[in-house]
Each structure stands twice: as C-alpha cells, then as structure tokens.
Specification:
The protein has about 400 residues and is of the alpha/beta class. It has two domains: about 140 residues, Alpha-Beta Complex (Aspartate Aminotransferase, domain 1), CATH 3.90.1150; about 240 residues, Aspartate Aminotransferase, domain 2. About 45% of the residues lie in helices and about 15% in strands. Strand 5, helix 9 and strand 6 form a beta-alpha-beta unit. Bound molecules: pyridoxal-5'-phosphate (PLP).
Amino acid sequence: MSSTALLNSRTESLAPYPMEELARIKRELLATGQKVYNFGTGDPTIPVWEPITEAIKDGVSTLSQYPSIHGLPELREAHKSYLKRRFGIETGEDIMILPTRGSKEAVFHIALSLVGRAGGRKRIVYPDPGYPVYRSSAIFAGGTPHPVQLKEEESYLLKPWQLDKEVVKDTAALWLNYPHNPTGAIADKSYWQELINWAHDNDVIILSDDCYADIYDDSSEPPLNPLSISSDRVLSFMSLSKRSGLTGFRAGFLAGDSKILKPHSKARANFGLANPVHIQEGSIVAWNDDAHVKERRVIFGKRMEALVPFLMERGVLKEKPKATFYLWCKVPKKFNENDIEFCLQLAKKGIIASPSSWLSENVSGYFRLALVPSVDEIQEAKAILKDFLS
Ligand SMILES: Cc1ncc(COP(=O)(O)O)c(C=O)c1O
C-alpha cells in the first residue's frame, strides 16, 4: 500500500532537502576514491574558538534538569551586550530576546504564530532565491508561501511596495535576509527605513534573518540590523552558526518587538526548544567576544581573494560580494542555463556546488559556491575549474 495513507500531503510533497542531496553526492564521490572539493553546503570546517568549547565542556553538569525557554540571565546579558556593541541597539522594554537552537528552528516556528494573524492573513512573503525553510514553514503552518524573485539589476533587494494590493492585505509577515544567501547582497539604511515605513503602513511583520550579519568584507561598512531603526513589528533572527562556526551546537537568538515575542515565547515553551545549559555557557562566551569572529572574516577574506578574481576573469562572477561566504555565479552559456546538469557534471570532477534550481523556485542558470575549502584546496579546485569553465 502507498505511504500516502500514512502521512499528510504537506510531508508527502516535500522535495528532498537540498543540503541532504549535496551530502549524498559527496558520500558517493568519496566512496569512489575521488578527492572532493566541497563548495556545496555553507558549513565551513574552521575549528571552534577554544574558549567556547571549553565553556561548553565546563557547563556539562552531572545534575541534569530542564532548561528555561528564556535562557540563563548571563546569556540574556550577553545577547544585549552584543546588540549594543555591534548595532548600537538599546534593549529596553520594547525589545524582548529569546535564545534559539540556531536560526533554522526559529525561522520554522515563527510561522506557526504568525499565519492567520490580523483577521486571518495567510501569506508569508520571502526572497527567491533564498533559504528553503521560509517556504516550508509557511506550508506547515497552513499559510500561503509567496516567493518574490530578486533581480540582479535591483541589487537583489526585495521591494514589497511592488506587490499587488490584494497580496499585501493578505500578508502576515515578510522575510528579509541581508546579507543574503546566496547572492551576498546587503541592504543600506535608506532601504531598511523605506521597508520599515512600508511594513508599518501595511501592518506587516518584518522577519529579518540576520545569521550572516558578522560575515562581511572588513573593508566595507558592516551590515545593519533593522532593530536599530525600529522595534515595532520587527524581529531579528541571529545565529552563532556563521559568526562563530557553531553549526553543530545549535545556538542563536531571536530579538524584537516584545508585543510579538512575549506571546510567541509561550508557544516556544510548548515546542520544547530550550537550549541545554552547557550550550548556553558556550554561547555566552561566543556572544561576548568579537576577536574570534574577526579572525573568521580574515580566513573567508583570503578564500575570496583566492577565487573571486579567477571567477570574474572567466565571466561567471560579476563582482566580489560585500558579505557572506557565498559566490553566486552564472552557469556558462554552453550549459544553456541548465544549472543542475552543470553541477552534476562538475561533481563528477570532484567539485560540489549548489545549483540555483535547488535554492530557488524560479531562478535557474546560476550556481552557488560556499567558501568551505581552504585556500590550498581552492588553488587545486581552480585547476579543475579552469578546464571545466573554458
Ligand atoms: C539564510 C539562512 N538562514 C538560516 C540558516 C540556518 O542557520 P542556523 O545554523 O542558525 O540554523 C541558514 C543556514 O545556512 C541560512 O543560510
């Protein structure tokens, strides 16, 4: 009998998660003895700054008790201190902060509280290309996913004022992600101001996915956080995954409008999302230090230098991105925009990249390189790419 009787259509209709697919391809290549250059998943393998892992180890107690959804007082102080230091955000009564188990779960769960708000608004608007969980969370929450295709000629800025009036009236919330995965685009203050004015005029909640906020080119202005402009109807999703390389420990926080987050914290208590105390101890150290993050930026900067000019010379990359560790490249003409075919053929040579069709509902003809390999590995990969791209 078909399994469709056992599961609901939301789960049955899910496409394989792109990063799972990339991991499968990598495993298959390794099994054939092929050397693999993994530019696929955005999970760099830089060792975690030791004081963080030490604090995590020291935080493991022989007495195990349920942690609080609100986190340790010292963790809340570390979040506040970071927001003040990095973005000049003062956290008064208007802003609430909740620890998260990384951004992914927080992105997913917020939809459960927002779909149906304001008289039954069902739409969640989000950037395309973009993080796949914006869409899947809207679906699981019973909402309507509404992708907006970002355009290169508009610097990949999502402009909700271009949406139909009827769509806006049905929009519960809008996702923004600057610095943007996969294009590396950033947004300036005037854009954020315009966006926030629009959200206030139209009663739309701004969901700002800020997990790449600290991964930027040190020679340019650090990216902004919209909470530094207004906390009204604005939520910011922060993470230690990219900032401190803690993807495996699952740690982040959610900050913003306390009128939204106070009730949402009751929902989160039901979801069972409190952070284990030892992870909180490590997070305190991570949020209170900026030097280890700067060191990570230097590493990504060197990887950019090793690869960006080469890709630009070959005409697949337009410019060096100002932020993130991603390079959003155009598939060479001879592949007729077939990004999946391009990436599969490239994988056969040992280089794993993400095709745009796996990161987008509407955009084809691009591929994303995540700067995960070291500079030495990048040099080796360039020799392969040289043949492949010519
Ligand atoms: C845009 C974006 N949002 C959220 C996440 C999830 O990050 P986390 O590891 O904090 O769950 C990622 C991970 O790659 C991402 O690229």
